[in-house]
Amino acid sequence: MRLTFILPLATLAKVSSASFAVDPNAMVLHESVTAIPVGFAQVDTISPNDEITLRIALVQSDIIGLQEKTYAVSHPANALYGQHLTTAEVAEFVNPPPATVSAISTWLAAHGLTPKSVSTFDDFLQITLPVGKANTLLAADFRTFTHVASGTRSVRTLSYALPAALKAHIRFVHPTVAFVPPLRVPGVAAVKVNPTRRSEAVEPRASIPASCAFDTGPSCLQAVFGIPSAKANNSASNVLGVAGYIDQFANTQDLTNFLRNERPDLVGSTFSLQTIDGGTNDQSIFNAGIEADLDTQYTIGVASGVPVSFISVGDDSQDGVSGFIDIVNSILTMPAEQRPTVLTTSYGFNEQDLPASLAVAVCDAYMSLGAVGISAIFASGDGGVGGVQSTTCTTFVPTAPSGCPFVTSVGGTTNVPPHAAALFSSGGFSNYFPTPSYQAADVAAYLGSIGTLYDGLYNRSGRGFPDVSAASHNILIWWQNSGDLVDGTSCASPIFASMIALVNDRLIGAGKPVLGFLNPFLYSPTGRAAFTDVISGHNPGCNTDGFSALAGWDPLTGLGTPNFDGLLKAVGL
Ligand SMILES: *[C@@H]1O[C@H](CO)[C@@H](O)[C@H](O)[C@H]1NC(C)=O
Ligand SMILES: *[C@@H]1O[C@H](CO)[C@@H](O)[C@H](O)[C@H]1NC(C)=O
């Protein structure tokens, strides 16, 4: 999908014949796509009386200031390390300036519209209005489109404009030009097994821990990554959040079966439920979601004794992407003692399917989480260099939000040491976010070692991901009353998030701040020492062999696989 951000003069002339320099009401093109994006088709025009709900993203007071502050409190070498901000302090950076608020209210009031704020920081306003009126307000042409493969319908426009006087106050209006394929259940394979008769499942191997002989469960992960089985002692203020989307429901019966077999000492542990955007958590066994079951089982069963909150995000936000911002708002409005210290998400998008403006807004949201001391951890995707899922592609497809420098992206490896990169482990370089300084030397070293290989297929100046990796193959879960072995970076994210939650438990016990935004720490000399470099494997896609795992950081396994004692040492415990 091609987006135009710099307005070409010819288009400007088409939108308005008046000179916007003198006429503040002249409509100036704000965002557009040159054609209906591949995979979508126009179905129909839409009645001007049908209602549409739009979100207006306002310019914030000082987002660069928040970036600097977030780096300062997250870098172990900085005097402010660990001094996370309060939500009120974040608001000072993110709230729109008064001039912006008044310009927007005046504009909307003149059209008889009363917006409601849908963000903690009032930087997102929502309006519901007839399509005909939206077309006038934004010089748009809203129509009904369908995502052909899924049949999902959406109302979008190929371009929209804003009054010249408001351009400096509005980041973007959404959903307008964002044609985002619906989220799909991640994961690449599921094989039914009988966990109580493991010897029939997979051939045992003598060279690996006995607990890993047939599949990968919590005891194998404990052996491989040094994860303790002792229960966390500081549960009151250390919740591990698990994000759920697309009606993936976490089932308590599956959880109980899983714990009985894999963690009998934890039977009785369960998750608390939080719902936003109309989310639910249906407990019928036939509606148990494979991803939600995996994510809850590999947090509750790995982060022993850490309270887990399953946050089910419904589709009231209507467009798939806003839920990734709404979950952040919902967490930021919780009392500080109740909100998670770690949030794991195993869902994502192909970066190119999000307009840059929207990808930046999602990234800003997760930066706010980092600023207040919450680690945002994402699966890198399961399509190798081809994106979240394998797809046809002519250039490599980075994933979102992994390309955001303020999240920690987790790639996938095989299940036992010496770990190799999993073939599906997504990784590469963002086209929207430049290489952040914390990884600049690592990215330069990797690019130096591959020379001109794949020149033109990826962005040499982009943020490289993933940051770390963990086991993603033959992970044993209970789903809809039976055992399954699953693969995918969806496994790696909750496993790594659980390790961070357990480190946070020890930090709280020692009277220290929790880790928050992880990357500056992970890439620091002490942080990286907690990882075992992964030096074999590759991640094919787009008719190539993909990148190779090499000595040092690489764009399929990051810094490598974590070691729990190494992490404790790195934080000085
Ligand atoms: C919690 O405290 C008990 C008793 O002091 C200890 O044995 C256990 O290892 C602690 N758990 C963790 C995760 O530190
Ligand atoms: C590559 O990344 C840089 C840094 O984010 C960006 O400015 C540039 O537009 C990207 N190039 C392409 C072709 O997307």
Automatic annotation (TrEMBL):
Transmembrane segments: none annotated. Ca(2+) binds at residues 533-534, 552, 554. GO terms for molecular function: metal ion binding; serine-type endopeptidase activity; tripeptidyl-peptidase activity. One of its GO terms (cellular component) is extracellular region. Binds 1 Ca(2+) ion per subunit. Residues 1-17 form the signal peptide. It is found in: Secreted, Extracellular space. Pfam families: Peptidase_S8, Pro-kuma_activ. One of its GO terms (biological process) is proteolysis. The active site is at residues 291, 295, 490. Residues 215-573 form the Peptidase S53 domain. It catalyses: Release of an N-terminal tripeptide from a polypeptide. Its EC number is 3.4.14.10. SMART domains: Pro-kuma_activ. Its cofactor is Ca(2+). Keywords: Calcium, Glycoprotein, Hydrolase, Metal-binding, Protease, Secreted, Serine protease, Signal, Virulence, Zymogen. Secreted tripeptidyl-peptidase which degrades proteins at acidic pHs and is involved in virulence. This is tripeptidyl-peptidase II.
